[in-house]
From TrEMBL:
The keyword DNA damage does not apply. Gene3D superfamilies: 3.40.630.30. Residues 36-194 form the N-acetyltransferase domain. The gene is ectA. Pathway: Amine and polyamine biosynthesis; ectoine biosynthesis; L-ectoine from L-aspartate 4-semialdehyde: step 2/3. This is L-2,4-diaminobutyric acid acetyltransferase. Residues 1-32 are annotated as: Disordered. It comes from Pseudonocardia ammonioxydans.
Length: 207
């Protein structure tokens, strides 16, 4: 693995080489005259996901390589959002837990500050959920959140409400594992979510 590189300048056009032919999820909704396409990532999206993570100054940014790999191996449980001018403004990375393959663990949710506060994170979360339901039949979601991240707690509580299910919190990892200066990570368990309780269907088109 190579060390993280410096963030590149923002792209103003879609990532070169990004092949969208197989995308099953698309979402576009107006927000102050801006619409977003929410799709499964491809490896070429890794650079943008990494840039957004670094620029967030909140997330633990993984290596650029990790995000490229994510776009290959976890595309069915992740999404990236682009503005209609091609600028990447958000992403969700998730995976199916190997020990519980019907549980979608959401690893990171990130929205560029220019696009926050307009419901984009919620729409990306719903799109990632819908994809994982369609491809893997998931019925539970998990995520970890530090106690100081109020917006993230609100985001996932809101997801649970939309899907008519409960959200429960328990201790997961503390500084003894994560290192001094790292807030503890609480585990949030959402579900079960029945298919009939689903409120979104983003397959194959805009909503
Ligand atoms: C957390 C984050 C993804 C939210 O993105 P967003 O697009 O602004 O979120 P949404 O507009 O979809 O809002 C989702 C919910 O969170 C609430 N929320 C959003 N920002 C908030 C804030 N700063 N403070 C309190 N609540 C907030 C919204 O009110 C909404 O709740 P509601 O449905 O009950 O009204 C974004 O702030 C971000 O990228 N932060 C840095 C990275 C991070 O902390 N990610 C989460 C942990 S992985």
């Amino acid at each position: 693995m190579t060390a993280p590189e410096q963030a590149e300048p923002r792209a103003s056009a879609p990532s070169p080489g990004a092949d969208r032919s197989g995308d099953a999820t698309a979402d576009a909704a107006p927000s102050d005259d801006v619409s977003y396409e929410i799709v499964a990532p491809v490896p070429a999206d890794g650079a943008d996901m990494w840039r957004l993570a670094v620029e967030s100054q909140t997330l633990d940014a993984n290596s650029r390589y990790a995000y490229v790999l994510w776009g290959r191996d976890f595309a069915d449980t992740s999404v990236i959002a682009r503005r209609d001018d091609g600028l990447a403004v958000g992403y969700v990375t998730g995976y199916l837990r190997p020990q519980a393959p019907h549980t979608l663990l959401i690893w990171q949710v990130c929205v560029d500050p220019i696009a926050r506060g307009a419901g984009l994170a919620g729409r990306m979360l719903d799109a990632a959920w819908d994809r994982a339901v369609a491809t893997a039949g998931v019925d539970r979601m998990e995520t970890t959140i530090t106690p100081d991240n109020e917006s993230s707690i609100r985001l996932f509580s809101s997801f649970a409400r939309r899907h008519h299910t409960s959200i429960e919190r328990e201790d997961l990892f503390g500084p003894e594992l994560l290192g001094d200066g790292h807030e503890p990570e609480h585990l949030y368990c959402i579900g079960p979510i029945t298919r009939s309780a689903g409120v979104h269907n983003t397959e194959g088109g805009k909503k």
